Predict the 3D structure of the following.
Amino acid sequence: MSEVLHTHWKSPSNIALIKYWGKTGHQIPCNPSLSITLDQAHTDTRIEALPKQGDFPEPELYFEGKRNLPFETKILGFFQQISERLPVVTSHKLLIHSENSFPHSAGIASSASAMSALALGLCELQRQLDGGARDAAFFALASDIARLGSGSASRSVYGGLVSWGKHADLPESSDEVAAPLPFEVHEVFTKLHDDILILDRSPKKVSSRAGHGLMKGNLFSEVRFKQAHQHFSELLEALKTGDWDRFIAITESEALSLHAMMLTSNPPYLLIQPETVKIIKELQDFRQQSGLPVCFTLDAGPNVHLIYPDTCREKVQELLSMWQNDSSFSFEVLPDVMGKGPICLK
Ligand code: DP6
């Protein structure tokens, strides 16, 4: 009889600068994307693997202490897809305990941290059975497995600035696995902040999965994929040369293009709110007046992410306190920074 195995991984969320929006085949992105791995917003996942019970033992999933049956069904489908590569999902019954560091519906992409923490835990269990090191191949497998659970999760397996998806400027890039940028970025981009301004905590009316699907019928999709390729090239250049103006122009254009794709889907839909637009405009005015390199990006929701270097921290904090003392604004702030990537706790 096989022994009981344990793993414990903590894996962060990420925020995309170049957006993955539209996919094909088996979780293959229609364009390359590039993200900042976060530090504070993470998922903590412990897995206990018990000796086999039944042919395809059904996993048990506990989210924040409570058994979560809808998530269990999703995970079972995911396990069926990966069982050839990670036989531990059939040779053992897995008890999964998962917790997020960030509040429910905080507008943070929880699938990126959740699926990367799960993928790392599963790869770790398999590594305990087969031997081997936690080397580059281990993380590439984890990124590939995470991608099958949620595309953006493939990038959370690595810290810093991470790309996913084939692009001519990065010969090693792949649609199956993400990788950290293969060059040193300019020092002005080494300490980035992401303050997440939470305007609305209600669940999204259209899921990201459905949003990706609607790109199939979107008349502008091919042009959008071309734009993302071009933005990707330009952003790499800006990151190498330390060009904040270019970084800002691309990052903000990407956020608005993502939402433009929602507006031009069939049926069209709108996830931003009047408060989103108000903050964007106020931020752009602040940037013009102060000359500071602070910009916004958006996820598939109304909340605004403020991206800026550590050198602007005090000025941005002053701006946020001023907005929070003004009754015409209403938001909460979740401060975060670029992080080093997942950690194995056991
Ligand atoms: C707007 O990774 O959540 O955050 O692969 O269907 O799970 P699935 O989608 P998901 O999509 C993320 C979309 C995005 C942009 C991004 O993170 O690149």
Remarks:
- Residues 16, 19-21, 27, 33, 109, 111, 150-152, 208-209, 212, 258, 299-300 surround DP6 (CB under 6 Å).
